[in-house]
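Kindly go through the entry underneath: sequence plus fold tokens. Please state briefly how this chain folds according to its tokens.
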Amino acid sequence: MTTEDTAAREPTARQHTGWQPYHTLWAMLLGGWLFSYADRTITGPVVTWLIENDHGMLGSASHPHALGGLIGSLFFAGYMLTQFPGGYLGDRFGHRTMLAVSLLWAGVATLASGMVSGLIAFVVLRVLTGLGEGVFYSNDRALIAQRTPPEKTSLGMGVAITGLSIGLTVATISTPYLIDWGAGVFGDEDAWRMPFLVLGGATLAFGWITTVYLRRIDGPLKATGSTLRLLGISAVLCAAVMAVYLIADGAGLPSWGVAVLECVLAFVLIGAIVARRGSRLGSISRNRNVLLLSFAFIAVMWNLWFFSFWSVSIVADAAHSSFQNAALVATFNAGAGILGFPVGGRLSDLAKDRGWGRRPLLIAFTVVQGLLVLVFAVYLQTQEKPSLLVMSVLLFVTSLFFNALQPMAHALLNDVVDAAERGSAFGLFNLVGEIGAVISPALSGTLFDHYGSWTAAVYIDGALMLTSAVLYVLVRERTARS
């Protein structure tokens, strides 16, 4: 072990009663997920508002949904690229350090996103936001695994990542009202700035609180060295992402093609990292179970950011409803995670304790979720004006299964790697999975511009989820009954 957050600190499997220090950790990380996800989620509703109001930044584009989706995809290109380096830096400098740096970075970059003018400057700051937020995931998962009793690991991961759903809900509901407020403060042309300013400021404040807490639980943070390393890596990666974007856009490549090239860039750069540090990270990249789980998670991230980015537009287009009503219906998709994440984590722990293993439950929930997405697609296709009530119910139930399966996959990954490699393993896992997040918004927006509806994109989403279930079947899990 080379980090300050050593495996020696891992709790044993003894029973605990009452509020424990690891509960406080879960709560703080839940807050981290909440603010970081709110920061990234506001881009989707803001883009929808820009398109609907023919704003100069997007409204004049010949294919506005494709361009808007590409903005989301470029955020995730940045987010994807620091997954693996972020996990490695966490293993080296401490997972607490990287979590603090990530939150403070996200707050500053989100604030700045609301201050700039012009599409290119906005895209650059969204990419930079993604690069900073990209180090949160792997270090969050690793720190929970280190400081939570083994029999409650999946529950802890589920509770903490509930913040994701709360952040999605807060951002989806609040964005229309923040834009209305922004119109009164800045005028109609600059109303879109207010969500970034408010949520960026809130993230910065919470990042400071989290930093104080993380220092108290285990001493000083190694912030200087880790921040300088991350700044250096991010400068190179941001330049690479923007170079690919500008060259591909200048060549007339479609938005989804740009997103695919960003994924290719990710694997070229990460391949170079693995080649340089093969002795330390090579075992992770050759672990069969890690690779299967990682590629299966492409569908999960595709689904997450297809609905998170475009759900307001999907509802508004299908039901011909107002922007605010569509946002309220879309919260049923976001809010289901408040229940789904902890319940999925708890069910996963129970299944493992009883000797069944986590994998069968993960497969079952993935199949059910994929089928429900296809049901949603059929409903959109067959109804001229879908009911807001029916869409709310379908979005909620589908999202309930979707959010429950995620901590199951996270805990299963934790079970198949060594403690010293957790940060790197989760980094690789989310790096590969983020392929879905990078391509999904841009390709889905392109499909809408081509077909005039979201039905084809929803069908693709459901098919991908069912494909991921097949990959989970191939994972080898050790259980008490093996």
The radius of gyration is 21 Å. The chain has 19 helices and no strands. The mean pLDDT is 85.
